Amino acid sequence: MTVSTATTTSLLRFATAGSVDDGKSTLVGRLLHDSKSVLADQLEAVEHASRHRGQDAPDLALLTDGLRAEREQGITIDVAYRYFATGRRRFILADTPGHVQYTRNMVTGASTAELAVVLLDARNGVVEQTRRHAAVAALLRVPHLVLAVNKMDLAGYAEEVFAPLAEEFTRYATSLGIPEVTAIPVSALAGDNVVTPSAHMDWYGGPTVLEHLESVPVAVDPSGDPARFPVQYVIRPRTADHPDYRGYAGQIASGVLRTGDRVTVLPSGRTSTIAGIDALGEPVQAAWAPQSVTLRLADELDISRGDLIAPAMDAPGTTQDIEATVCHLADRPLRIGDRVLLKHTTRTVKAIVKALPSRLSLADLSQLPAPDGLLPNDIGQVVLRTAEPLALDPYARSRRTGSFLLIDPADGTTLTAGMTGGAFGSGSTGPDRSGDF
């Protein structure tokens, strides 16, 4: 049950990141422009704005920097989502900011990405923000990473400039547990190796950025993941045609569910058998992530929104004590003793912050023990106690059922994004930091 790759129906979600003035928005604009993904009126508006600013050529960065403050300062502030397609694949692009104070925006944009493109300026090399973006990608378990060494036109298109930068970054990313790194020399301004191969770098024989995006494998085998079904809504029509119908609607978070499967309902622990699966109003024998379906069980159990249905032989454990890595998103600090709401899939429960064991320095990956609190953009370890048991998977096993949000109960503000388990992947070839944080 493997989903095919690089077909006209395949979808790749990817995020871009880079330090300030590394040319990230220009790269995205070049990618959209040269792949013929820009509408005529959009290009005309960019050309008009560029002429108004005294520029002879269109400033392609304006295709993504849509906020007024972004255009005035020439920086990216918010996450800009763009949708485009080629003959081989459809894309959802999250263009994230480069400033340190907007690290939380990168977390948002990369949280669902299957690939991240990290830019660096060939003249400046690997800087602190480059390492920070690689670390965030590793924290979020992004499986594919592209290093785009930009502004090669200002570095004489020299291989001796590109090669050591690619080696340094790859070594650092590998030490974080990132399984795959592809380095590509580009000039976003001139268009070299973005969509079309460069005529100035015949020493480079790899793919262009678009070629790599079109061909990177994103196949998923749902049967390889544990089945997880958060209940979103209970359907009881009680009509003449369906007097006894009781269905549990939701989106399959991972894995495959089949009619006849023995399942456990969490957190109650009650078991039953899947009597039927309805998809788009029709009965089916099997369904897999991310399909939205309705399950019918053989037994009448007390099930409501927020419960989790999982295979009886592979159900997650339930707990009220959670240790997780978090990125703090809100301006208000997160401190020990704070009472919050914890939202996990479709379930929301009360929780309290019991401890903040450490805060991570993304500059050198060192630990700062026992911080007073977590400030905006901080990444740290947190210990929570919930009022009700939750069924969570380790984030390394499931990005969907291993993640959660902390919410301010007073005004509903999202405070923190959390990932259960260790910080970095365990498959690294460098120093193993997963047990340290």
> What portion of the residues fall into strands of 2 or more residues?
25-35%
Task: From the alpha carbons, calculate the radius of gyration and give it in angstroms.
Answer: 24 Å
Helix content: 10-25%
Low-confidence spans: 2-8, 66-77, 426-437
Average pLDDT metric: 85
Q: Order of SSEs, N→C?
A: EHHHEEHEHEHEHEEEEEEEEEEEEEEEEE
Number of helices: 7
General form: globular
N-to-C CA distance = 36 Å
Number of strands: 23
Report on the biggest sheet. 8 strands, antiparallel
Q: What class, by secondary structure content?
A: alpha+beta
Word description of this protein:
There is one protein chain. This protein has 437 residues and is α+β, with helices and mostly antiparallel strands. It is 17% helix and 33% strand. The chain contains seven helices and 23 strands. The chain has helices at 24-34, 40-52, 68-73, 103-110, 128-139, 159-175, 209-215, and strands at 11-18, 80-85, 90-95, 115-121, 144-150, 181-185, 229-230, 233-235, 247-251, 256-258, 262-266, 270-279, 282-284, 286-288, 292-297, 308-311, 318-328, 339-344, 347-361, 366-369, 379-391, 403-407, 414-420. The strands form four sheets. Strands 7, 8, 9, 11, 12, 13, 15 and 16 form an eight-stranded antiparallel sheet that branches. A six-stranded mixed sheet has the order 2-3-1-4-5-6, with helices on both faces. Strand 22 (403-407) and strand 23 (414-420) form a beta hairpin. Helix 4 runs parallel beside helix 5. The chain is globular and about 70 Å long. It starts with 10 loop residues before the first strand and ends in a 17-residue tail after the last strand. Mean pLDDT is 85; it is low at 2-8, 66-77 and 426-437.
